[in-house]
Design a protein that fits this description.
globular; 2 domains; 4-stranded antiparallel β-sheet; 13 strands; single chain; 12% strand; Aspartate Aminotransferase, domain 1
């Protein structure tokens, strides 16, 4: 790992030597009233717009304008096959086979649809394990699934928490919980990267431990996909879901994605909520009464894809294909390492870094725990053109994204923070 040095000169040297610096120009950077780039450190909440995104949207708008309904069967990307144009690139992004992924719906909708198939509780095996302070939507979804099946969430939800006085969860505590309660756990649903602390979990180890106990293992990859390297097929994960508007830069509220391992893709014994678009394409337009699911993850589709919401995703996936997750991860480790170094150099007691200190155990995010001053500091940073985000209680999340953030972004953020403090 690079030996970091203080001072602006080092940041400029790093940017000059950065092979990915060219990709900053492939995104629209927010600007202030004077036309200067703002420092955008919220890619963990909403990724920036790829410069080609409008091109892909415009193509579909033109198709709609000139061909109307004919666009379902014509053009570069006929709408009736639109999701298939995304499968190869999506699969490469998350370490899957093309048949194991599908772009559809939104994240929590996909989690519910997948739990219809993979959360099959019994009298003795009904509990769901997840990490404490998982994203609230996951907690709501899990609680509602337990209630739907007649169980009390207070009893049925096992949450693994950080040890007293610590901010992150120990991997061994997750494994211990699985070992202790595995025979009563029907489903393990873990976030690949925790939204609050940025902690990244060893998903391969968790998957193996859970499946050794007979548990289904699902992942919420909202903060992991496009952030850390994933290998869903080889890890044997049963299912996963993720949104595409954070690190994958597909736009606000964009279409989400799902993964179903091939060992389940052709199972006829799995229940699912069926819909027309999951039906066999060969007979779909014959309107048969009997549902005949597509093989693989595509069979979990219910409705046709929202083309205008999906078009920007094509622009972003092209960029991921150009660069590859390994190169992005290498720069990500440098950026967060440099940010950590500069924050430590600041020698202030105004905040504590609550993200893992081991760089391999976090994504491209450092979470700073402030006291009562957090909201004020956050507002003043934004007033100075530095866009980061605030989460209760008293945490400012800072996410330098390797696609478009620079080492000078990190340097200037810390310099401004030191002034404010």
């Amino acid at each position: 790992m690079t030996d970091f040095r203080p001072g602006e000169t080092f940041a400029k040297e790093m940017d000059s030597a950065d092979p990915l610096s060219v990709y900053r120009g492939k995104f629209h950077i927010p600007r202030n009233a004077e036309g200067e780039d703002r420092i955008y450190l919220v890619g963990n909440s909403l990724g920036l717009q790829p410069t080609r995104a409008m091109e892909f949207v415009w193509e579909e708008m033109e198709m709609w304008k000139t061909r109307a309904g004919g666009g379902h069967h014509a053009g570069k990307r006929p709408w009736e096959l639109y999701e298939t144009t995304l499968s190869d690139k999506t699969a490469r992004l998350v370490g899957a086979k093309p048949s194991e992924v599908i772009v559809m719906n939104s994240l929590t909708v996909n989690l519910h649809l997948l739990m219809v198939s993979f959360y099959r509780p019994t009298k003795d095996r009904y509990k769901i394990l997840l990490e404490a302070k998982a994203f609230p939507s996951d907690q709501y979804a899990v609680a509602s699934q337990l209630k739907f099946h007649g169980f009390d969430p207070e009893d049925g939800m096992i949450e693994v928490s950080p040890p007293e006085g610590e901010s992150t969860i120990r991997q061994e505590d997750i494994l211990e919980a699985i070992d202790k309660d595995g025979k009563s756990i029907a489903l393990i649903l873990i976030g690949g990267v925790n939204y609050f602390t940025g902690q990244s979990f060893d998903l391969a180890e968790i998957t193996q431990a859970g499946q050794n106990q007979g548990c289904m293992v699902g992942l919420d990859l909202a903060h992991a996909a496009g952030n850390v390297p994933l290998n869903l097929h080889d890890w044997g994960v049963d299912f996963a879901a993720w949104c595409n508007y954070k690190y994958i830069n597909a736009g606000p509220g964009s279409v989400a994605s799902a993964f179903v391992h091939e060992k389940h893709g052709n199972r006829d014994d799995l229940p699912r909520f069926a819909g027309w678009w999951g039906h066999n394409r060969e007979t779909r337009f014959e309107m048969p009464k009997q549902f005949d699911p597509l093989r693989g993850a595509e069979g979990w589709q219910i409705s046709n894809i929202n083309v205008l919401s999906t078009a920007p995703l094509l622009a972003s996936l092209d960029l991921f294909d150009d660069v590859g997750m390994q190169s992005l991860r290498e720069k990500s480790l440098l950026l967060t390492g440099y940010l950590e170094y500069l924050l430590d150099e600041a020698s202030t007691e105004a905040f504590t870094i609550i993200s893992p200190r081991n760089r391999e155990e976090r994504g491209c995010q450092l979470s700073l725990q402030f006291g009562e001053s957090a909201k004020s500091v956050h507002k003043r940073l934004n007033d100075e053109g530095i866009i980061c985000d605030y989460r209760e209680p008293g945490v400012i999340r800072v996410a330098p994204v390797p696609f478009y953030n620079s080492f000078m972004d990190v340097f200037n953020f810390v310099e401004e923070l030191k002034k404010l403090l």
